């Protein structure tokens, strides 16, 4: 399981912060709800694609002695299940739906996958905004305009990582998880 936590907004800052600051502790297991603090269970490295750069960032793992499951603390600029950094992912979606020409930052096939996945997850995004913001929200019927309105609403929440963390805390999955 993943636990999103806000650190700095860039992988280089996160790497520096990771090595300098105190480690984060998890007091309640999200699997079995044990109230005994989870044990630090090491670190693994994860790749993050940040526009034209690729970073290998350290991620803490914690272990529950009661249920034997692990929890990873992922920085909020990452999206669970995707190597693309959240700001880059949202920028790609925004460019696609607003018909802005994209540079060759990603292969065409990879971009198509991202756009199709977003379209498949739009109903969950609509549900989130109706539950957490306004139950009377009205969305356009046409999928293209609906996608643009959803992206505008994501940006209206504040910084993308704030939205991503709130969505993850509510549904226990990323907004692009299928």
UniProtKB/TrEMBL annotation:
<protein>
    <submittedName>
        <fullName>Uncharacterized protein</fullName>
    </submittedName>
</protein>
């Amino acid at each position: 399981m993943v636990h999103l936590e806000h650190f700095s907004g860039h992988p280089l800052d996160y790497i520096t912060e990771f090595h300098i600051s105190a480690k984060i502790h998890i007091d309640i297991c999200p699997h079995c709800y044990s109230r005994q603090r989870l044990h630090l269970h090491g670190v693994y490295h994860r790749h993050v694609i940040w526009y034209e750069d690729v970073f290998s960032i350290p991620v803490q793992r914690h272990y529950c002695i009661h249920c034997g499951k692990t929890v990873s603390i992922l920085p909020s600029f990452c999206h669970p299940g995707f190597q693309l950094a959240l700001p880059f992912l949202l920028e790609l979606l925004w460019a696609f739906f607003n018909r802005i020409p994209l540079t060759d930052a990603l292969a065409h096939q990879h971009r198509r996958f991202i756009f199709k996945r977003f379209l498949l997850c739009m109903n969950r995004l609509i549900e989130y905004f109706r539950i957490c913001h306004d139950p009377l929200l009205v969305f356009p019927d046409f999928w293209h305009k609906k996608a643009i309105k959803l992206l505008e609403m994501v940006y209206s929440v504040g910084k993308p990582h704030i939205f991503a963390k709130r969505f993850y805390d509510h549904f226990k999955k990323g907004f692009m998880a299928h």
